[in-house]
Amino acid sequence: MEYLTLIVVALIAFATGIGIGLTIIKKANEEKAKTIIKEAEAEAEVIKKDKILQAKEKFLQLKAEHEKYINEKNQALNNTENRIKQKETSINQKLEELKRKENEVNQLRENLTAQLDSLNKKTEEIDKYRKKQIQQLEVISGLSVEEAKAQLVEQVKAEAKTEAMAYIRDTMEEAKMTANKEAKKIVLQTIQRVATEHAIENSVTVFNIESDEIKGRIIGREGRNIRALEAATGVEIIVDDTPEAIILSCFDPVRRETARLALHQLVSDGRIHPARIEEVVEKTRKMLEDEIVETGKRTCIDLGIHGLHPELIRMVGRMKYRSSYGQNLLQHSREVANLCAIMASELGLNPKIAKRAGLLHDIGKVPDDEPELPHAILGMKLAEKYKEKPEVCNAIGAHHDEIEMNTLYAPIVQVCDAISGARPGARREVAEAYIQRLKDLENLALSYPGVNKTYAIQAGRELRVIVESEKVSDKDAETLAYEISQKIQTEMTYPGQIKVTVIRETRAVGIAK
Q: What values do phi and psi take at 358, rounded to 5?
């Protein structure tokens, strides 16, 4: 019991000590808290004063900025107000000016209305007077208004046509004097610088023999030799009463030349029989083929043309044995080549290309087969086949206007071909065709009214037209010459050019008795 009592007493004492300690600690904390509160209050007061000062400064700054902004806005408003007042003043002035002009326009309108009324009255009076004058003119002239208009229109048409023809003539003459001056110079220089033989060939060759005895040996027993010779060569051999001559007739010059050479060899050898004839003809044909190739090579060397395909060289050689209107084809091609080279040099083009095109422009006339194509197109296809340049191919194909000309070499070849074929003595025409062309030329001019007589002179290169002076005036003569030349140009085919001369003559005849 005592122990428990001691423990209880001890516990009570401990609890009492704790309570006293807690009381002391509490008091100490309260004092510390008061001290902290006081310090916090003092610090808060300081912070409060700083914030108040900062707020005042900010307020003053914002107030100053606001006043500045207000002042700027007021200034802008004042400026805008001033501009608006100025515009208002200007608008008022313009309105007053418009009102003044409107009054002036109204005044002018009234004046114009009065003048228009007066003008209408005068116009009516003029129309009445004009109608009265027209009626009087109709009575005097005996023509209605429509008839008079028709006569006036016809007269104006005739005068306009005459003036137009005179203008066309003057323009053409001026163009010829200016635009064609250099062209004529070049053509003349080109022609003058080329000298060419006047070669005429035909389809018959005369083979001369020493005596008529050889004729019998050529004919052979029952004509077997001559038949074998004709069969081997394809040439008709005419043995007639012509002394010391045999005629070889064939349209192919190569076969005709083969027959001539073979016959010459047979006569020289003296052995004439069918087997020997076939042997000699075959050898002659091969020899002539070699000669054709050699002629082509020699021609290319003479003209300075290199790199030509062997087949084209052979065709050039074949030209030696072909003719066109009696003109030797090889001589013609050589002449055209030289002309083309000279003309290309004058025009600043490549003379080698022009010379090549001029030499090959008629190769379509000597093909191995005979296709149904114009010789210009066929020649162009052959040139393309053997890898000639496009300029050369186009010049060959276009020299008769069968295709479009793409380069300047094409018109050069065309012109030089015409120069070579149109010069005097170059080609031979059939007499009937020549006479018919002259008659057509004269009849064409006779178809015009007022033409009395026509004469085609200078081998058809000039047409002289004699007109009746009573029916054709001087101005009509100029028109007639132009119309006839244009009709000849569109309806007829002719070499070179044709000059049309209209002759009008006035004669006064008096008889003294």
A: -65, -40
The residue ranges of DSSP E strands in 174-290, in sequence order, are: 204-208, 236-238, 245-249
Cα(226)–Cα(439) distance, rounded to whole angstroms? 45
Higher pLDDT, 187 or 442: 442
Tell me which residue has tokens 């001691």.
6
407-438 burial code (b ≥16 CB/10 A, e <16): bebbebbbbbbbbbbebeebbeeeeeeeeebb
Instruction: Note the pLDDT tens digit of each residue in 336-363.
Output: 898 898 888 888 888 888 889 888 888 8
What are the distances in angstroms from CA 441 to CA 316, 398, 463? 37, 28, 8
CA quadruple 336, 338, 340, 343: dihedral sign: negative
pLDDT in tens, 376-399: 888 888 888 888 888 989 988 888
Amino acid (1-letter code) at residue 235: V
User: Quick check: 276 pLDDT over 50?
Assistant: yes
400 touches 376 (CB < 8 A): yes
pLDDT in tens, 291-301: 888 888 888 88
Region of residue 348 (left: phi > 0; alpha: psi -120 to 50; beta: else): left
Per DSSP bridges, beta strands 499-504 and 462-467 are parallel
- Three-class DSSP category at 279: helix
Tell the burial category of 308 from Cβ atoms under 10 Å away from its Cβ (0-12, 13-18, 19+): buried
Which residues, other chains included, contact 415 with Cβ-Cβ below 8 Å and sequence gap of 6+?
187, 343
At 70, is the pLDDT very low, low, confident or very high (cuts 50, 70, 90)? very high
Is the distance from CB of 196 to CB of 331 less than 8 angstroms?
yes
**CB–CB of 337/359 below 8 Å?**
yes
Query: CA-CA distance, 150 to 147, in Å (whole number)?
Result: 5
**Dist. CA 304–CA 292, nearest whole Å:** 18
| Contacts of 220 by beta carbon, 8 Å cutoff, 6+ apart | 226, 228, 272, 273
What letter would DSSP give residue 223?
G
Q: Which two tokens stand for residue 222?
A: 């029952």
Report which of 160, 150, 151, 153 is spatially closest to residue 479, judged by C-alpha positions: 160
Residue 244: CB partners within 8 Å, gap ≥ 6?
Answer: 208, 209, 210, 211, 212
Of 194, 199, 195, 197, residue with least CA distance to 339 = 194
φ, ψ for residue 250 (rounded to 5)? -170, 145
| Whole-number Å distance between alpha carbons of 205 and 228 | 19
Whether 284 contacts 248, CB under 8 Å: no
Name 511's Cβ contacts closer than 8 Å, sequence gap at least 6. none
Q: How many Cβ atoms sit within 10 Å of the Cβ of residue 463? A: 24
